[in-house]
Amino acid sequence: MSNFLSLDEQLTKALLDSIKRLSDLFWGPDRQTCGEMLTGDFWQPFKTLDIVLEYNPPEVFQKIENTLNKFTDKDSLFNYLETAYVRLFISHRDGITAPLYESCYCGVGPGETAPLMGEPALKMKQRFDSKGLSVDSNIHEPPDHLAIELEYLYFLLSKGWQDQDGALIAEAGSFAAESMLPWVAKLQKQIVRQMPDHIYFFLASILLAILYRIGNLHELSQNSRAM
Questions:
Q1: Which CATH architecture has domain 4-226?
Q2: 217: nearest Cα among 178, 169, 167
Q3: pLDDT above 50: residue 221
Q4: I want to staple 35 with a disulfide (CB 3.0 to 4.6 A). Which of 74, 119, 168, 218 is the partner?
Q5: How do the domains of the chain map onto residue ranges?
Q6: Beta bridge partners of 145
């Protein structure tokens, strides 16, 4: 497999488009996006990355297609996604099943409840401040929400490639490997316990594959400095 330092323009665009779409999807469903999900073009960026990613399960897109084939219009797909989104990520009678905040997965022992605005949220705010960025004033979520972290990852990669800034690319690798991967893996496990055949599980699986490969940038950077 090639690494992301040597991606051609098509693969670079596919990676950035995939990250953007995952961020949008983890903000929650909307009818326009649901309509787009029912067309093949929506999934093309993810499929383009097949040559540099290892999806688990390998047949993830076939499973997504099988699920989407059950829906004939965007409204029925929206209802399906919204019901699961609320149950998994927002509210459930037994508590939030799979919260979308990094703080909820870090430094918490069995039976303990993690603070919503923990150290990961503070670190994300510091990252934004260091780059002169800010979360949109219309967004009332902690900065360690998955969709926000994906937007930050998108920023690092897109600006790093555009400016040919190796430091930003390396930061994207370390952010993916050290910050996102550990807790997104836990998030995926929480989803699979509740809804093993749901699209949100497959989306989390796709995201993990992307983070693993971006995380390789961190390893490559460390190895080059050690030589």
A1: Orthogonal Bundle (1.10)
A2: 169
A3: no
A4: 74
A5: 4-226
A6: 101
